[in-house]
Predict the 3D structure of the following.
Amino acid sequence: MKIGIFFGGPAREREVSFAGGRTALANLDKGLFKPVLVFVDGRGRFRLVPPQFLQSPTLRDALPQDNSGFSVYDESLATDALDATLPELRPEQFRDHFDLAFLAMHGPDCEDGAIQGLLEWHKMPYTGPGLVGSAVGINKILQNELIALANGQQKKTATISRDAYEQADKAQFFQSLVDHLGLPIVVKAPHQGSSIGVAIVREADLALFCRSVEQCFFTMTVQPDGWSKVSEWSSLSADEKNELAQKMVSLDSGISFPIVIEQTGEVIKHPADFVTKLDAIAQQGQPVSLASLNAEDEVLFEEFITGQEFSCGVIQDDDQIAIALPPTEIYNVTSFDFESKYKLNTTKKRIPVDTSLENNRKIQLAVAQVFSRLGINVYSRIDGFLTPSGDVLLHDPNTIPGMSPSSLIFKQMAEIGLNLSNSLTYLIRQSLRERIRTGKDTFHLKRLLASLDAQLAARKANPLPERVVSFGPTDEEFIAAKQQYNELAASGTVLPSLMYIKSKLESHEIPVNLLFKDTIAELETALSEPRHPLLIETAEHARHITERYV
């Protein structure tokens, strides 16, 4: 079966998606699937790319650049800048190139039902939840309301539209939120993922509050008493102006290009043009508001929840029974934002949550219930908090979780016995099963599913030859062995296993769930301790799923 791996996209999470495309390509079982790479550019056009496109450190490094000295995404370049090297693929041509679209994209247009609807229109099956679950999973305001209906949880929230915020007395509005929600206040852009557009206001600081709100609307106000750095434009040096313009390109911390001058409707696509325009605006001395072309129109405010933060994946079987994976606790971090998720190494994680077996089961029950009641299918990851009083408060269902090799969803699937390659095969197969339920192109989808099931059954009846990968007691050997294991698993030609040679007299075969330990010290600690009863219990509950792939 030919698999089109879709990555990139117009959303702010495209760098996360770029890394996810690399993971999917590297770990797709080549004995079952043939990968075809489909880069979705910043304007939403589909382009066939070779594997070496994903070898660049970042998406911006993979894209052609102009001679301006700025590093930009393709929206800032000429509309035909990619055509010469990256041929465009029209949606009506999809079925000529692949049988299923593997979606490794995130955020608006990518996991909100937009591309899912386009693919359904062109009779192309895709991975992940369908239209209903995707539409719900992208809207944090709607999520809060539906989760409360599903499980009765109570969490204080508030929202405001951009128009209402602009007309409001900022100090009075901030005080009303403090009275309602208390401090700290969590400020969120409702349609973003990867913790982009999330800020926490911890003190009664009006300037900080206004900066946080503008950050989540993806706007900036240029005026002498404005809240952002651009309000100091006239006093900045040329280098500082260029540095600020380059920072605005950033999708995780800037408002990103193209931007619009709201008073005139003029669109600025490039940071060099931005510098020129801001110099002219500064001379005029008139207040100006800048906004991303994809600015949010509402902002969500939530009370700050004190408790143990967790993230819990969910999968399902052929009868659509949801099975929650072991929850991961996130600790040693003040906020699980984009910086701590993807750029820093300070965040700590453990499976399961450091609490009682009963509380871990309570988390799983709540997560599985919300997964089903919100119309999500195939798989998802739902975050939340376990409060000191033992209450489970959920938020932010994620319908296409991040897909780096160390992503939480893959670590949790390893706890039930699925390695990276097995996990991707599950995702493809279960997605096919769920697309059949839509009643569209049913016969064709059933033939694809039957063919894949026959291949999996044949592999079970005639197991692949085993290959042992041995490593010694250093972190470097452990890292190299894990990489070799994953490469062999993805080759589809052998069944790999890991053997830890601690000494001439002591060795250990390493189970799949320990592949995600980072160091030899962590590995040895795990080998010396009994397996947590929740992990044993969850693996048993999911056995009827995993036995198809292992």
